[in-house]
Amino acid sequence: MTTPNRKISFYLKPAHSRAEQLADEMLNALPVKARGNACRAALLAGMALMRQDPRLPHLIAEVFDDNTTISQVRHLISSIFPDDTATVIAALRQLTAITAKPDKIAVANPMPSARDTLDNATVARQNATNLFP
User: Fold this and answer.
1) pLDDT of residue 47
2) How far is it, in rounded angstroms, from Cα 38 to Cα 54?
């Protein structure tokens, strides 16, 4: 017996936040046939992050705007996993190489020094504190 399909639907409220407005614009820019796959990929990526830490998708959604960079996402993740960022950074680099436009890919040192990692973690914690006073 096969596993039944599951339909998932929800509403985007572009007037609610800039992140939802950007998501709506991104979906409208896609061909109609590609929208379902894009939504499925976004949902699965969010669930993969949620499995690591339930806060991650919510935090990333809160900082998503016109100027969000992969570096900011890395800082956010490193604030939650300060000791295990190398693996996450490698995975994010692979994802951006596949999905991002060439001008949006952040170039970073392959092996950040301990001082850089500490500074990045400090900045990320300060940013997270500003998000949730």
Assistant:
1) 93
2) 22
